[in-house]
Amino acid sequence: MQFKEYQPSLCPTYVREDEFKNKQEVVFGDMKDQINLSALNAMYNGFVPTAIDMYALDSLGDNFNMTRSPIFNELAWRTKLGKVWDFWNTSGTPSRLLTELKEASGFPGIYIVPQYVEVAPGIFNKSIPVLDINSQIETLGNFWSNFWIVIDQPHTYLPIKWGSAAAGKWNISGAGYTIKWGGLDGDQALLVYMEKLIKKLKPAWTMCRGIVFIFTDGAPLWGKPKYNDGTLWGWFPGSFGIYRIIENWEIPNTSPVSD
Predict the structure, then answer these.
(1) For 163-220, how does the pLDDT look when each residue is reduced to its tens digit (9 = 90+)?
(2) FRET pair for 134, CA 20 to 30 Å: which of 8, 60, 177, 206?
(3) Do strands 207-214 and 240-244 pair parallel, antiparallel, or not at all (unpaired)?
């Protein structure tokens, strides 16, 4: 029995027989029911299996220091939150970073490639032939702890370059993001999400310099990118696009840009 039914039943006869007073008691009882329901919902929303909706799940995500991927539906987000201990117990490892990026993006071919590879004592070569936007890193040329995230086909991004399907989209704004020439046409919110995920899960002593997208018939790799040895052969301009990642401390008041 609810309070809106129970409370009037406790009243004297003259209250129950008075239409206005009886309705007033029903309202008072209903207010108690609402408080009771709110307390019950709060209890349910404190647990992943019983959380009522996305808002409740997002609140749990905030408590767990986890953020929902733009592509997650309610079931996927609930499943991910249910694995919070796995998420944090293995944070800072290559396997966890790759697992989370694949699940968050839906792209199956994601790899970690060092920015520099020591080919002889004290001699480093780049794994991908591009300039680093940080002049100090580029000049020293030996940041062995830096790495790239490489995303092979299939994925949903296109280059904004001459001859590409997205060539006419440069220098415009959409959904709060400026699309630049030489950048990437695709879900910009997902790029930002992946950047934050990388910064959250990478080892503290490393820097990810960007996300490299290989395009259709793009970088002619000999096999797949080989994890941790940087052997990427035959790269040529236009075969890949890079979403640059800038560390928070690196260039103050500068947001990451596509390149």
Answers:
(1) 444 444 444 444 444 555 457 888 999 999 999 999 999 998 899 999 999 886 544 4
(2) 177
(3) antiparallel
Full-model pTM: 0.73
Q: Residue 178 domain-assigned?
A: yes
H or E element at residue 193: helix 188-201
Asked if residue 64 lies in contact with residue 78, where contact means CB atoms within 8 angstroms, the answer is no
Q: Report yes or no on 62 lying in a domain.
A: no
Q: Which pLDDT tens digit goes with each residue over 38-73?
A: 777 677 777 888 888 898 999 999 989 999 999 999
Catalogue the E-assigned strands of 103-248: 110-114, 116-120, 123-126, 146-151, 158-159, 172-174, 177-179, 184-185, 207-214, 240-244
Domain identity same for 30 and 113: no
Q: Is the dihedral of CA 87, 241, 220, 155 positive or negative?
A: positive
Q: What is the extent of the structural domain holding 11?
A: 3-45
